[in-house]
Amino acid sequence: MRYHFEKPSIYLSMYGERHRCNHPVYNVCTLFRIGEKGLAVIQQRFDETRKFTYWTEVDSWLTDALYLHPDFKKFFDERAKPCADGIYPTVTIRQIMWALKMKPLPKQRWETVFDRRDI
Known about the structure:
The chain is of the alpha+beta class. The protein has a domain at 17-99. The protein has helices at residues 60-67, 72-79, 93-99, and strands spanning 17-20, 28-34, 37-47, 52-56, 81-82, 90-92.
């Protein structure tokens, strides 16, 4: 039995796009867009050489699993909004995985979380 979401051996990344913006927390995210509305998803990374964490786009092997999940559209409709000043509403990969009741990614010791719903 798997306790965490594992990377598949074969995958495609057809959904979501890499989006650059001037958000105070990140510069690059994975953007899911339907019509005028969009939802940005970010994932935390760790640079071992410089010993710091940063937020960036989601691993490409996760995008289709998120988008094709049966509850994604409901979550998207609740959280997504049109672009405001080049920025879309943002969620972390953990927030969306928990909301969709997907098995989470293994938590790393260096990971941080946001206390609020909106980022």
